Amino acid sequence: MLPVTLHPNVSQGCQGGCATCSDYNGCLSCKPRLFFVLERIGMKQIGVCLSSCPSGYYGTRYPDINKCTKCKADCDTCFNKNFCTKCKNGFYLHLGKCLDNCPEGLEANNHTMECVSIVHCEASEWSPWSPCMKKGKTCGFKRGTETRVREITQHPSAKGNLCPPTSETRKCTVQRKKCQKGERGKKERERKRKKLNKEESKDAIPDNKGLEPSRETPEQRENKDKQQQKKRKVQDKQQKSVSVSTVH
Questions:
Q1: Which residue ranges are recorded for the region named Disordered (predicted)?
Q2: Alpha-carbon distance 71 to 58, whole Å?
Q3: pTM for the full model?
Q4: What b/e sequence results for 67-101 when a residue is b if at least 16 CB atoms lie within 10 Å of its CB, and e otherwise?
Q5: By mean pLDDT, which of 7-16, 40-49, 79-88 is the weakest?
Q6: Which of 28, 143, 218, 228 is most buried, most CB within 10 Å of its CB?
């Protein structure tokens, strides 16, 4: 076998996976299964050999060399030249391509930066109608209202159809029936409670009208009797004086 003639600046005693290299350009070829990629350092490019291609590049294997090639300008990572797996900021991924705006029927997901299907709101079936009621009661009236409800089973995405109402009310007519004890509605019980509290508050206010006079003590009654007796004696004395003067 003839010896391989190398360029004076090419060496086979390289490090870092290089098969051949130069002092100025770094790796010129790589060992088997390694990928050759050019890295820019300032104004010059240096060849390096890696086990896999860095982010922003895709690898291609050829018979004589395994090479890393840069992805398209709008692509952050890619599988090959025509299939991107992650877009750069400001672009949305759709079927391997990076787009400024998503196609018709799709919407942009600003969290994953992908074009996704539009999700519309979905609701369950209506519940049965509630009993006919009025002011919280099911008795003591002829015309009232009944209600039915449903639940939201799927909330919409940004461009999806909004959710419908989750409750409906309609008028209803029933045969009037008398309320039994304990069937009074919540509002009726509240009204009676307020009325009772008002009456109790009124009773608690002191009222001087109609009150019996306070009872006298025995000492007060005795003094009062003495004063009355003394007063009668004075009156009797005055009357006797008047009678004597009339006789003379």
A1: 177-248
A2: 7
A3: 0.49
A4: bbeebeeebbbbeeeeebebbbeebbbbeebbbee
A5: 7-16
A6: 28
